[in-house]
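[stage:ingest] chain + small molecule (uridine-diphosphate-N-acetylglucosamine)
[stage:ingest] validated
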Amino acid sequence: MDSIVVTGGAPLSGQIQIAGAKNAALALMPATLLSEEPLTLTNAPRLSDIATMTQLLQSLGAEVTALQDGKVQVMSSHGAINTTAEYDIVRKMRASNLVLGPLLAREGHAVVSLPGGCAIGARPMDIHTDGLEKMGAEIDLRDGYLHAKAAGGRLKGAVIDFPFASVGATENIMMAATLAKGTTVINNAAREPEIVDLADCLRSMGAQIDGDGTSTITVQGVDRLGAATHQVVTDRIELGTYMLAPVFTGGEVECLGGRIDLVASFVEKLREAGIDVTETANGLKVSRNGNRPKAVNVTTEPFPGFPTDLQAQMMAMLCLAEGTSVLEEKIFENRFMHAPELMRMGAQIDVQGGTATVTGVEKLKGAPVMATDLRASVSLILAGLAAEGETVVNRVYHLDRGYEQLVRKLSGVGAQVERVSN
Ligand code: UD1
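[stage:predict] done
[stage:export] tokens:
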């Protein structure tokens, strides 16, 4: 299995091109199940999670073709759809559950394996299924699979109040509602940029959606959706990750394609920590000239709050800050697994339930480390950029899920990073 070896200390300078958003693409690809005409996505990232979604859609009978330059064409022709999403694929990636809404809307029935837990928490699907039941679906759990059927063969519009602004449930219900009979209103909807991106794409396909980006989304069902070409929004988590890199090393990095509206709460915290962030004609530039960042307190929240997917990377930075920071994780119950690994590098962190208190140290030291999820893994790479000596990050397959060409991008700005096969 491959490892990534980081030798700390090199200041960074240059530009990094930010890819299209993994989490947007994972919702956009299943949208193809709502139409019998092709959906072409441009700026799709090349990641193993996208390969898993490709495999899932192919298992359902869709055709997925990788074109040149990050273009992906997805098509699910008339009569070709199988409505069972098998455990063997779904267990690999929770976002597989995003086929449930589209399959049910298109075919009137679907059987989708429950994804099961993952390293960061239990992650149930009750908000998705309660919403679909309000739209007239009957859903039973049998043999680990959700068996869903729309009464009368077609979902109907409903007013749905989410108990929590779940990203995946908002995407599933929004997609299902595009072909339902009548109007669906989602109250307490998630407001993430990936939701707006999905709504934009669905509108290009002919859907009638209003209010995406706010807490109330209204969808007027239509009889059919058509073809579309859509550009995947910038990956705000990859953006935030690379914006942090020069904070660890000193120097200056411009993230091409970065937009402040995608990462406003994160930028606010960086500036509070004394880091310079400037908007350029092509993206966002971050620089640090000698001074250590200052301690800041961070609480993760649904968008527009501080993203849980940048919590691990921020914690790594705070390990080197001047003073004591408190990090509160409010989205997932078990998302501090990077803390003990950072402590192996000399960090001072005290975790009590969902709260981590980080007392900054002047130096971290390289060590062999590993992590159990994607963002935790990249936080160790960032810490390695600042550490004395060599940091060997194992279980690289987590990084391959969400960071396209990580080694090339970081070494392109002067980092000493290499991938080695063990
Ligand atoms: C998405 C992102 C993930 C990000 C998360 C929160 C994708 C592919 N993944 O995941 O990277 O970390 O948003 O920003 O876009 N919950 C329930 N019942 C449900 C659904 C969710 O209790 O039916 C809970 C979850 O256990 C979790 C919280 O709600 O504690 C947030 O989950 P949700 O917003 O649904 O995250 P995902 O869509 O799975």
